Amino acid sequence: MDNNEFEKIWETNRDKILANDSDYQRILKSYTAWTWADYIIFIGGFIICEQFMPSISESIVLQYLLALAGMILIWLGYRLLRSQLIGKKTLQQAEQEAKERYRQSLH
């Protein structure tokens, strides 16, 4: 079987194969899972940012908007750091491994 034939077969069966691949599903779930630490970082980020905002702006509305933006940036930074420290493989790597296993099973 040449590469073009395999790619056609892979495209038709990709979703079903990846849905049954436990490693792929574990990594996919880790991208969207929320833990207690997410909530603590989220709330803590707002509290920390709120403390620094009076020195930046006099408007209370602007202070809270800036604190919300800071809270989101801190939380996104935490999620990025967590994914770099915890995840050994990316979703693309897990998909590539599943694809290679499927290729081997067809031979």
**What's the pLDDT, averaged over the residues?**
86
Name the shape in a single word. elongated
Structural class: mainly alpha
Sheet having the most strands: none
Given as residue ranges, the uncertain stretches (5+ residues, pLDDT < 50) are: none
Number of helices: 5
Q: Strand-and-helix sequence, N→C? A: HHHHH
The proportion of strand residues reads under 5%
Helix content: over 70%
Q: Roughly how many Å apart are the termini? A: 8 Å
Give the strand tally. 0
Radius of gyration: 22 Å
Summarize this, please?
The chain is built from 5 helices and no strands.
List the helices and strands and how they pair.
Elements: H1 3-20, H2 22-32, H3 36-52, H4 60-86, H5 91-106
